[in-house]
Amino acid sequence: MKNRVNLTEARMAAGCLKLDIEENDFRGFSHVADFTAESGDGDGNLMCDDSCAAVSAFELCREEIFEREPVSRRITCASKLAEDVYRGEKKAVSIVREYLRQAKESQNGTYITVMEAEAERIAEQLDRRTDCESLPLAGVPLSVKDNICIEGILTTCASRALEDFVPTYSSTVYSRLIAAGAVPVGKTNMDEFAVGADGSTSYFGPCRNPLDPSLSPGGSSSGSAASLAEGSAVISLGSDTGGSARIPASYCGLAALKPTYGAFSRWGLVGMAPSLEQICPMARCVSDVRLMFEIASGHDARDMTTCVTWEKRRRNGRIGVFIPSEVSETARKAVERCVAVLKAEGYEADRVELPFFDEILGVYYTISSAEAASNLARFDGLRYGYRSEKGDILSTRNESFGAPLRERLAEGAYVLSEKSGGAYARALHMREQIKEKLNELFGDFDLLVTPMSDTEAASFGETVCTAERYAVYANLAGIPALTFPAVRGERGLPVGVQLMGAAGDDIFVLETGEAVEGRLAW
After folding, report:
1. Got the DSSP string for 224-275?
2. Which of 83, 185, 376, 483 could disulfide-link to 496, CB 3.0 to 4.6 Å?
3. For the residues 191-217, what does the mean pLDDT come to?
4. What pLDDT is recorded for position 20?
5. Picking from 90-99, 109-118, 134-143, 374-383, which range would have the lowest pLDDT averaged per residue?
6. Residue 130 burial (C-beta neighbours within 10 Å; 0-12, 13-18, 19+)
7. Which residues make beta-bridge pairs with 500?
8. Cα angle vertex 137, ends 135, 140, to 5°?
9. The domain boundary residue, chosen from 393, 421, 449
10. Strand positions, DSSP E, 58-151
């Protein structure tokens, strides 16, 4: 039996399925064997099988919807977009203007500064170049967390203390991406000085999750994650001190890598806890994160913590799986689905226990608070930044820092005082023990698979301690950790899984994550 479907109605039906297009999810539609469109009836109608009328409407109009939808609302692979630019199929200026429009129209508190003039200048230069085929990120829109310096561009760390600070130099990681053809869209919102976990502590107002604006996008790289989720950037730079990029990635359905400590230069990063944090590549898919890593990693003469090579490890085809007993069913499912794919790839899987799991947050907060108190002491209003009309340093810091940051700095000052009884030294000793235990695990296993978070995106003010417990191991041990979406939770929002590798195994972790992500129809 044939069914008559009006093409105008078909277009409307396809438009209603726009979300599926944006999510690149055609699995339920692209393998319909009984689609038997033969001919129209001359009146704008299509004759097709009754059983697949809606599918027919979708399939007929899919390309049309793609052409009509703004480029920034589609899932866009960075390498494909760059290829379109150097082949001359797209102009960098037209691409960037569309993403700039998205950035300016955002209602999510995503950006502190939209770099319209700078973006158009760089895009115009790209369109005049004849060697764009040598630029792996030609014309790719990039958002940058506002604690990463860009020469001549306001860099505030989302704090009143730096509300008018304009650096005279650019971050090494940022400069390498720009040299590869990326175009900056803007500086993204964040928790003040990267102290916070839900995107709410910014002096410029909270950042919201584009998937559900009533929820948090996670923190502190809240704006970087939101820019990708809302479609105002294709790739982004965040920073990660204790999950600050990976937790927002999990909440917003993205991929993010906390690199091995020293793989990325920290030059140009306004640091909060220097021994823990790294600039992090973030994107909609693992392949783009890998591309960013390959471009931006490597030795930097201006940062003596960078390292060129690490000892190559033998692979034994085994993965360690950590699922604590109190984990949520959603997080358990995320890990189990990832492990099932890895087993299908030939890996053996064994359950493991992560060292000091119950004590890990105490170790992390002791070290990070102490380093923050020491590192942020220079923001006193004497040389630059906000200065109180009262003129004294105490008033300046009280007025320029928000309450959550002041509390963290007070904790850090106590940790460093004699009254703490050597808490900082004890935390450093435990950190070394954690490193040793993890190194022992990586002697037996190629990778460790853990949850990234127990839940979908949380409401503002909800604790994310469970997510941080999984995240901070990579920061304390200086090892690479990758997250990408694995399942949807009860509300249909994404939940990520985490892969951790030994120091220097960033590419191996990314290659594995890319293979797993491609087989997870989350």
Report:
1. HHHHHHHTS-SEEEEEESSSTTHHHHHHHT-EEEEPPTTTS--TTB--SSTT
2. 483
3. 96
4. 34
5. 374-383
6. exposed
7. 448, 481
8. 140
9. 421
10. 111-114, 141-145
Which pLDDT belongs to residue 72?
A: 38
Question: Which of 74, 91, 126 delimits the end of a domain?
Answer: 74
* pTM of the predicted model over 0.70: yes
Query: What residue type is assigned to position 236 of the chain?
Result: S
- Report the run of H or E that residue 2 belongs to, with start and end: strand 2-6
Same domain, yes or no, for 138 and 51?
Answer: no
pLDDT of residue 174: 98
Q: Which residue in 244, 250, 265, 453 is the catalytic one?
A: 244
Selecting among 220, 222, 236, 250, the annotated active-site residue is 220
Catalytic site residue 258?
A: no
Q: Would the pLDDT of 239 be above 70?
A: yes
**187 token code pair:** 């500086």
How many domains would you assign to the chain? 3
The answer on 196 and 129 residing in a single domain is: yes
Percent of residues, the chain, with pLDDT higher than 90? 76
Q: Are residues 367 and 348 both part of a single domain? A: no
The answer to whether 281 and 289 are in contact (CB under 8 A) is yes
Whether residue 491 has pLDDT greater than 70: yes
Instruction: Assess whether 251 and 336 both reside in one domain.
Output: yes
pLDDT recorded at residue 383? 81
Is 334 in the same domain as 433?
yes
CATH number, domain of 473, equals: 3.90.1300.10
State the average pLDDT over residues 315-330.
94
Considering the candidates 56, 72, 145, 221, report the single residue annotated as catalytic: 145
Q: Which residues contact 475 (CB under 8 A, 6 or more apart)?
A: 240, 241, 242, 243, 258, 276, 277, 278, 364
On whether both 56 and 192 belong to a single domain, the answer is: no
* Catalytic annotation present for 134: no
Do residue 252 and residue 375 come from a single domain? no
Q: Are 47 and 146 in a shared domain? A: no
333 catalytic? Reply is: no
